[in-house]
Every structure is written in C-alpha cells, then in structure tokens.
C-alpha cells in the first residue's frame, strides 16, 4: 500500500486526463474572457503549442512525469517570462483564469487550496514591472 505522504499533487489531481482538462479550460478562459485581455495579448493566436508546453510544465511541477525537463531543460520560469511586461494586473488576470479553471475541475478542497497558494506564489514571482 502506498504511503499518503508519497502521493503527489499530480496523482491527487487525477493524472494526465484531469491535468489536460485543467490546462485546456485555463486557455479556453484566457482566450475568451475579456477580463484576461492583457495576458491574452501576450500569446499567439494558435494556443495549441503553449497548451502542450504548459501541460508538460504542470506535469513536472505537480510531481508527475518530468516531460518539460526532458523536452526543454530546466523551466527557468522567471527568465522565460522576462520578455513580457508582467505586473499585478497581468498576474491577477492569469490567476483569475487559473482559479476559474480549477473551480470547474473536479478536485479535493485541500488540493485546490494547496494549488491556489502555490499558483499565487509562482505568478507573483513572475512580476517584473
């Protein structure tokens, strides 16, 4: 029997199928909700490649398969986001999309709370203006 402490957020979320659902919903919201227009403008018209890259990143970040690192190396999140002007407004738009996507994705409340805190800290770290 697996110890509870060794269960990753990736596993608690439900693995690839639920992670893909979360990523797709996140980008669906970003690409359609006018409240996310600031961050939407930072993305290409074709969201397919960034959806796949974000899926790979979250898989690794949540303790699942290390797809992002295998394909692209260390995430270097801040460096990868430096070309984009990210302030509180952009951070909050990103979080609005993610929190809404999480709300629409089936998960335990404790996992949702954990992820909201982790996503906030990570998004806040991306600010560069």
CATH architecture: Orthogonal Bundle
Helix/strand structural class: mainly alpha
Quantity of strands, as a count: 0
The CATH superfamily label reads: Globins
Query: Mind telling me the C-alpha Rg?
Result: 15 Å
Instruction: Note the overall shape.
Output: globular
For the record, the CATH class is Mainly Alpha
**Uncertain runs with pLDDT below 50, 5 residues or more?**
none
CATH topology: Globin-like
Mean pLDDT comes to 94
The total count of helices amounts to 8
Distance between the termini: 48 Å
Helix amount, in percent? 55-70%
Instruction: Describe the sheet with the most strands.
Output: none
In total, the number of domains comes to 1
Task: Kindly summarize this structure in a few lines.
It comes from Iodobacter fluviatilis. With about 130 residues, this protein is mostly helical.
Overview of the structural elements:
- By secondary structure, the protein is mainly α.
- The protein has a single domain, classed as Orthogonal Bundle (Globin-like).
- Helix content is 66%, strand content 0%.
- It is built from eight helices and no strands.
- Helix 2 (15-32) crosses helix 4 (48-61).
- The longest helix is centred in the first third of the chain and has 18 residues, at 15-32.
- The chain is globular, with a radius of gyration of 15 Å.
- The mean pLDDT is 94.
- InterPro entries: GlbO/GLB3-like (IPR044203), Globin-like_sf (IPR009050), Globin/Proto (IPR012292), Hemoglobin_trunc (IPR001486).
- Keywords: Heme, Iron, Metal-binding, Transport.
- This is Hemoglobin-like protein.
- Belongs to the truncated hemoglobin family. Group II subfamily.
- GO terms for molecular function: heme binding; metal ion binding; oxygen binding; oxygen carrier activity.
């Amino acid at each position: 029997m697996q110890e509870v402490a060794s269960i990753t957020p990736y596993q608690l979320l439900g693995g690839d199928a639920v992670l893909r659902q979360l990523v797709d919903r996140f980008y669906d919201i970003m690409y359609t909700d006018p409240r996310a227009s600031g961050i939407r403008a930072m993305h290409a018209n074709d969201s397919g490649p960034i959806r796949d890259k974000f899926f790979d990143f979250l898989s690794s970040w949540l303790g699942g398969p290390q797809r992002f690192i295998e394909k692209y190396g260390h995430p270097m999140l801040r460096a990868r986001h430096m070309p984009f002007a990210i302030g509180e407004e952009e951070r909050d738009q990103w979080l609005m999309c993610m929190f809404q996507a999480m709300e629409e994705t089936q998960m335990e409340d404790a996992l949702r709370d954990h992820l909201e805190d982790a996503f906030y800290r990570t998004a806040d770290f991306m600010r560069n203006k």
